[in-house]
Amino acid sequence: MTDTFENHSQETLEAHLVQVQTLLAKMRLVEELVHRQGGPRQTLVENLVHKQHLAELHRQIEILHPADIAYILEALPLQERRLVWEMVGAENDGEILLEVSDSVRESLIQTMDKAELLAAAESLDTDEIADIAADLPQDVIQELLTSLDVQKRARLQSALSFPEDSVGALMDYEMVTIRVDVTLEVALRYLRRLGELPDQLDKLFVVDHDKLIGVLPLKRLLTTDPEASVAAVMVEDFVKFHPEDEAHEAAQAFERYDLVMAPVVDAQGRLIGRLTVDAVVDYIRESADSDMLSMAGLKEEEDLFSTVWNAAKNRWMWLAINLCTAFVASRVIGAFEGSIEKLAALAALMPIIAGIGGNSGNQTITLIIRGLALGHITPANAKRLVLKELGVAILNGLVWGSVVGVFAWLLYDNPALGGVMALAMLLNLLVAALAGIFIPMTLERVKRDPAIGSSVLLTFVTDSMGFFIFLGLATLLLL
């Protein structure tokens, strides 16, 4: 792997992917032609052609950054992914396993033996090992723990002990500390002796007997008189975290205060690690992906090229729940079969009520989930939020209810039917607003992720209530 990598723009990355895919397709085509030709030296020719293609593929792969290779691996079917994975230098295995998604990582680990997994893990920092530990076989973890020195072993065990969505699971241990009783000149000499500094370093941590008492921003260190003391220049009012803090709260703090890195301290105020912006960005991206999958009813991240069986199992749970809710909605319709037989227009119009209610509810539920995630919704403002959303629902119901009412009147020459449509639209939008508010808020209160299944539950409520309201009003007022 070369130390200099090409431009990392999305266009360049996609071009690399196309080149690899083209090369793999060419490899398959040529080898199939050679195989068909036969001949006394067919096996020898096939081996030579295969080695030539592998060498060309290796040249293409070795110029890429590990993150770019991870992107390519995620976009390839299983067989081609494994072929490309074999072309990756062993020194980059760990970094690539760290970059790929969990599902793809599992498929790569299945192709590696214990020695390869140990070598890949040992090339990573302690916090990085913790990130992939859940996907490693238990015997590899045990052997890895025995091979690490005492400090690294203690750090890895500590990182593994924290919940996945906590600051402790995201922090690393690459810290630069300085004593409070020295001058800036001494601090500068210390940094020069260190040589290589940790990534995302914008401040030094000032300690006194292992207790964190301040931070020294690098810009102050470089622009202040070298004879000044660290105590006189350091910042004593700074953002810090505890390992038990929730990761999403730390992510909000990084965004709010434009942090690059922040210290992590224990209950006694002792410095134990740091949280960096790259770890926070990775967490935000993974959380966003997880929320998107959860709202679609997927239990977990799915490899694009996983087996049909595994992909189907991943989607079954919420499909089963959706099927049950659909049966309930169908029974609501069944209860009004007589009304539908008397006025066939009801069957044509009722999907409009349910559909508009579902769309309106999805708008509300998205805003509520976002507000909960950002911590903007509190008991103090919840009542005003409910009133505001009900006001929006009433206004939309009056405007769009009038539109669909006039449409039904003109279409079926029945003003009473238009009035029922308008009233049903207004009432279902109110139901959708209430469901969009209280479904995620209830899930949040019972300590469940508000994104998981909210859209499925909302669809159930708006469909069932939409059919019930419209058909019920029609039965009372028209028949």
Number of helices: 22
CATH superfamily caption of the largest domain: SLC41 divalent cation transporters, integral membrane domain
**Chain-averaged pLDDT:** 88
Q: Quickly give the CATH architecture of the largest domain.
A: Orthogonal Bundle
| Class computed from helices, strands and strand pairing | mainly alpha
Strand order of the largest sheet: 1-2-3
Ends apart, CA distance between termini: 78 Å
Largest β sheet strand count, sense and barrel closure = 3 strands, mixed
- Give the beta-strand count: 5
CATH class descriptor of the largest domain: Mainly Alpha
Sequence of secondary-structure elements = HHHHHHHHHHHEHEEHHHEEHHHHHHH
Strand content: 5-15%
Gross morphology: flat
Helix content: 55-70%
Estimated radius of gyration: 30 Å
- Here the CATH topology of the largest domain equals Tetracycline Repressor, domain 2
Low-confidence stretches: 1-6
Count of individual domains: 3
